[in-house]
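Hi C.,

You asked whether I'd gotten around to modeling the 597-residue construct. I have! Everything is below, sequence then structure, no commentary in between.
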Amino acid sequence: MSPTSYTSSDLPTSYAPPSSSQAPTEPYFSKAKKRPQRPSVSNGSSGIIPTLFSTTNAPFTPSSTGPSLSSIRSPSPHYHRPITTHPYSPTTSLFERVTAFLSPSSSSTTPLTRSRTLSAPLRSESPDSPEYRSSRPRKRRKRDRWIHTLVQGWGFNKRSAWRSFFVFLVVLFLLWRWVWEVQFEFSVFRKQWIRKEVLDLSHPQIDLAATCFAPSSLAASSTPSKWNTSLSTHTPSHISLSSTISLTHQHDCFAYSSTLQPSPLVPLVKTYYHTYWRADLLPFQERQAWTVKSFLATQSKDHSVLIIWSNGDLEALSPIVRDLLLTYPGRFEVRRVNVGELARGTALEGRWELLLGPGGLPGGVGRTDKRAWIDGDLVRLLVLWNFGGIWTDMDIIFVRDLHVLMEDEWVTQWDCYDKPYQSLNGALLHFHSHSPYLCTFLTLISLSPPPKPASTTWGSRLYLKAFRRLIDQEIVPFQVLPWCFADPRNCRTDKRVPDPFLVNPGWWGGRRWKEGGEEELRRTLNWREDRGVFTLHLHNQWAKDFPVGGWVRKLLLEPMDEYLDGLALKEREGEGLVLRFKEEEGEDEEALVEARG
């Protein structure tokens, strides 16, 4: 075909060019397809292509007024062909298709397309011009780096505004955290439970002055040790257990515990230490043996005896218990629990619905649960009522001698947060035998419904009930040890000892572990010089063990074990010297008898 002649067969049959007088009716970007369309043409001299559409195959003769055919360039590669003209065109409406199908005059070759006018700004002849480049479809940049993902697209739009706002909040929070100290404490309690269990002092009704604190009850004690005379006369103790303000600042509580030292005015007396282990839950292994070893290494040898109460025969079940009994005779005992016998003479005597619970049998530990909380809370009160002394849980490591604390009767503070409804803990207790405070605890149990399994109804909640009733009836309450004395872990991370199940904390006391933090912690747990806190509460966690090389083994357990081995060696050497001395004395007496004879 000649470059200067075109026929209508070479052109699209469905393309209907607008006249020169027809104005554009649609924008440059079509609504049907969001792509640039072919620019419209006209017969005017300003057009690129003159009117060359004809229904015949007559050759085309260029107009003298229009541009030469040599100036007409080939279609752009971005040129989109006109819409196809078949009945299934996507631009044909359903109504038009149905009408054309039903119309007898319609032909299958008749295109069913919408009449539309393609109009757009004219392109420049040069493809390098800004107008031509701006009409091309844009390509998204490839985001090959994370920085592109962060900064690409930042501008005055909604997405970049949210992104800028988020970054601003992060920077603001970091600056605020650097300057300010953030403290959060969140607890949820039912108001009905608060009114019934804490605030209501009329239920159950109990007159402590006429029962547990009656003069006749106090006079029935055989020895003065069963009732603290300093409390009855309102005179201060020689050793003050609690400070005048709350010890909430960093290491204040640890430093205050070091100020409590033995006084010559308070003589040492023989004290029984009691603990409890359920043989049916877990076997007695090395983890439990550390409680016994720490007791033997820190408590007074001539004034301390540890008794482990259990529902089974620990001596027959555990070889570790047998070895400890043989190695340290006189300082360590094992006994069976019988709540029926221990409850004699108390308000719980004969109350089997409370002592045993459903399915319980007389002669054992009574009511139990899977965590040994209910039976443990009851056994500690009954044991202290009968024998007096100090109660300690099995998940405690002794650090200091507790005889300096035995001038008063006390429970321990739960944590450093001073919670209003759970402020007292019974992991470490001290009461005299037949103490009126123990009488108050047992009386409240007898007047209350049975507890729920795995609850602190006979523990922390009971101590708070008794404490509020004592002060409400103008009776001097029992003492409360500061939180760090018995549980130095139960506080914020910057005020507590590290996790005992970690190797090294990395940072403690405001110093790195290898740059003074270890020595600072050693002074806080200085069991050799009897300074610092008194015990380390582990809060059960029986599935965990102290890691080899960890700070607990390095600062406490291994030195205590070496100390006990040295004591055992000295005792064996001393026994050998005694036997040798007796043998020598016997030989001298025999020689003297022979000489006299």
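If it helps when you're writing up: The mean pLDDT is 76.

Thanks,
B.
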